[in-house]
Amino acid sequence: MTRPGQVPGAVLFACGMNAVRSPMAAALTRLLFPQRIYVKSCGVREGEPDPFVDAVMQEVGCDLSRHRPKTFEQLDESGFDLVISLAPEAHHKALEMTRTEAVEVEYWPTPDPTLATGSREQILSSYREVRDLLQTRIKKRFGWTPTPGG
């Protein structure tokens, strides 16, 4: 069992459609913990790539333009130390998937920015809020500290 601040070897992030929240979380984890944590993401249902995700993730140096959403069933691996679900339906699926495995499952309730309305800038603002919330949570959970000199 990994405690807060302890870095797991392999993490799976899961959400509803693997188009917004879970790929954001996976990319941020890779950015913050390069070559330290093996990270994948998936969803309950298969979604479509989201251009707002690409835009807000490029702002922090992450290129998600090649991400293709996949479901739990399409995930071709196991052996994760930790599954973090970001939506209720993903949490239920994660618990079901791991019930016979020694895998820790955490639920991080995360707003769905696709529900945002208004101007392009207002919608982007919602996506940024989710990105920043995930980044803060990842840093805290895995005990991120800035590297000296950068």
Automatic annotation (TrEMBL):
One Pfam family per UniProt: LMWPc
Gene3D superfamilies from the UniProt entry: 3.40.50.2300
Any one biological process term the GO annotation gives: response to arsenic-containing substance
InterPro entries the record matches: Ptyr_pPase (IPR023485), Ptyr_pPase_sf (IPR036196)
Coiled-coil segments: none
Keyword Repeat: no
Domain Phosphotyrosine protein phosphatase I: 9-144
Keywords recorded for this protein, A-Z: Arsenical resistance
Protein name as catalogued: Low molecular weight phosphatase family protein
